[in-house]
Specification:
Blueprint lengths: L2 H16 L5 H17 L4 H5 L8 H12 L6 H15 L4 E11 L3 E10 L2 E11 L7 H11 L8 E6 L6 H9 L3 E6 L4 E4 L3 E4 L10 E9 L5 E9 L8 E5 L5 H8 L3 H9 L14 H27 L16 H14 L13
Parallel strand pairs: 1-4, 4-5
Antiparallel strand pairs: 1-2, 2-3, 5-10, 6-7, 6-8, 8-9, 9-10
Helix pairs in contact: 1-2, 2-10, 10-11
């Protein structure tokens, strides 16, 4: 049996276990998409179908894949919801640390994601695609994305949302408080804050040097909205170009800074989805729904490789695909290289979506 056909059958078998009620043709097409995505290492449709175990002509295969990505019956959230539920159930500890962020995809779209902080990476929970390659997403779009997660989070779990200045709106912060969520959200330096101690001042008017931290305490945001109270910590991380102005729902200093640093873990995920992995930013798709379905395949493939990498490390087999002394590779790259190794040696390939906790 050829390598790509063997991989396809392995993936198809697991897809049928995870989504037994889904139509068979969509199960097969998703298995083909993930197979081609992995073997090609790119999201370009012609590269993906070039890895399919099929004798059909390339143009007809590309058209088949386009139809699949354009099929409204392929409901992204219906496919991904059980995966998100399992990831949230897998998370250990008293708190769930979620990261909200945005990145450019394709030529003129932005991808907004909410992901779960996990071992210096983040695991995607939910996402949405928006037109425009620049600017921030609206507060309404941010709330709509977060609302998808609300039914999935157990009432007893504490949640902390981490985000950069693209999510600084006091309207969003107020909404998070009403849900009972905590947050550490970066603010722009031009924002004015109020304290009885110093009145109204711009955040960037406070003197701060690299390596320094300053706690402003409970303040109100902003002069136009005058909403409060929020805890403010100013911190200039060594090596960063500018200070972090961190607004939180609870007091603290070092703990809040350490929490915010986890926000950068989503950059590792984006790197795996883009330049270090599938080249998602170079997709030629121009329809947000098609991009949404392509992201579904990218997310499933990414989780598969992360999960497999964690298994390889857990079993003490990391040295077979990574340097013993340096340990250069992430779980994602370990999972990728392990799969290639199994295919090369004609060994069984594992397809799983949940990493070790």
């Amino acid at each position: 049996m050829s390598t790509n056909l063997r991989l396809y059958h392995t993936i198809l078998h697991q897809i049928r276990q995870w989504w037994p009620e889904e139509r068979v043709t969509r199960q097969r097409n998703m298995a083909l998409l993930i197979t081609g995505l992995f073997l090609a290492g790119r999201v370009h449709l012609s590269r993906i179908v070039g890895m399919w175990p099929s004798r059909s002509k390339a143009p007809s295969l590309v058209n088949r894949l386009r139809r699949f990505l354009g099929n409204p019956r392929l409901q992204v959230w219906e496919w991904y919801r059980p995966v998100a539920e399992q990831l949230l159930a897998l998370a250990s500890g008293p708190e769930l640390h979620l990261i909200i962020d945005c990145t450019k995809v394709g030529f003129a779209f932005r991808l907004m994601t909410v992901s779960l902080a996990y071992k210096r990476r983040s695991l995607p929970l939910v996402w949405s695609v928006h037109r425009g390659s620049r600017g921030w997403t609206s507060v309404q779009a941010q709330q709509a994305l977060l609302k998808r997660l609300l039914p999935l989070i157990p009432a007893q779990r504490s949640v902390v949302l981490l985000g950069d200045a693209g999510f600084q709106s006091v309207e969003l912060l107020g909404w998070l408080r009403r849900q009972g969520w905590h947050f550490v959200i970066r603010q722009q330096g031009k924002i004015q804050v109020y304290s009885p101690t110093f009145g109204w001042r711009r955040l960037d008017s406070f003197a701060l040097e690299p390596g320094q931290t300053r706690v402003l305490g409970w303040v109100r945001l902003t002069r136009r909205r005058n909403v409060g109270w929020f805890w403010l910590v100013l911190h200039w991380e060594a090596g960063e170009d500018a200070p972090w102005y961190l607004a939180s729902s609870r007091s603290g200093r070092g703990a809040l800074i350490r929490l915010y640093k986890k926000r950068m873990w989503t950059e590792e995920m984006y790197g795996d989805w883009k330049g270090h992995g599938f080249d998602l930013e170079a997709s030629h798709l121009r329809d947000p729904d098609r991009i949404d379905r392509l992201v579904l395949a990218v997310a499933l493939t990414f989780l598969w490789l992360i999960a497999l990498g964690s298994v390889v490390v857990k079993r003490g087999q990391r040295h077979l695909v990574d340097h013993r002394s340096r340990r250069d590779k992430s779980y994602f790259r370990i999972g990728w290289d392990w799969t290639l190794r199994c295919l090369r040696l004609d060994e069984p390939v594992s397809f799983r979506l949940l990493p070790y906790p």
